[in-house]
Amino acid sequence: MRSRVWVIKCDKTSRQISACRLRLSIDKALRRLIRVFDQIARYIALLFLRLLVDFCAKWITLLIFKAQMLMVKRETKCPYCKRWTEWQGELYDRCHYCDELLEKEEINRLSAAETQRRMNAEAEQALLEQQNPFFRKLSNYITLIFIGFILSVIAVVVLFAA
Ligand SMILES: [Zn+2]
User: Fold this and answer.
1) Which residues keep their CB under 5 angstroms from ion ligand 1?
2) Domain extents for the chain?
3) In 3-state terms, what secondary structure has residue 82?
4) Gap from CA of 94 to ligand 1 centroid (Å)
5) How far does the centroid of ligand 1 lie from the alpha carbon of residue 137, in Å?
6) If phi over 0 gives left and psi between -120 and 50 gives alpha, with beta otherwise, what is residue 111?
């Protein structure tokens, strides 16, 4: 529409006409550019929409899967009475028939590991106690002096830098 207005406004002189043509071509180029930008914007919007839909779909499938996992009853074979019994996946679940712990082996294994860890810690503690008290104190002092030295170096560096 604007170009037509320009055509009407143009006068007879060739100079004005050429200026008018130039304006028209600029106008056309701008319009083409706008169209291209419009397409790019549309493309980007579509891309985002697609990503969003993909994301939502993934989450929805995950949620459905989790809900199914929750709804499905898990069963396990009791190691004592050899019957299939309901199992929540917990460590201290019991058999519905003979009331025995289903995960007794796992519990034993975990408690053995805990005992081992505690024994190791105690042995370490005993070794520390056995050390000469003088050397223990000395090592403490050396550590303190070392930390103090590093702190003083940092302080000096900061002072000189400032
Ligand atoms: Zn049982």
Assistant:
1) 78, 80-81, 95, 97-98
2) 1-72, 89-130, 132-162
3) coil
4) 8
5) 58
6) alpha
Read off the pLDDT of residues 13-59 as tens digits, 9 standing for 90 and up.
777 778 888 888 999 999 999 999 999 999 999 999 999 999 999 99
Residues of the chain with pLDDT under 70: 1-12
DSSP state of 77: E
Q: By the 8 A CB rule, do 115 and 104 touch?
A: no
In contact, 92 and 101? CB cutoff 8 Å? yes
Cα(126)–Cα(121) distance, rounded to whole angstroms?
9
Instruction: Measure CA 11 to chain center.
Output: 67
Closest CA to 96 of 114, 111, 81, 107: 81
Nearest Cα neighbor of 7 from 18, 20, 26 is 20
Query: Per the structure block, which two tokens stand in for 118?
Result: 């505690």
End-to-end CA distance of the chain, in Å?
68
**Does residue 100 sit in helix, strand or coil?**
coil
Which two structure tokens, joined as six digits, stand for 148?
Answer: 């103090």
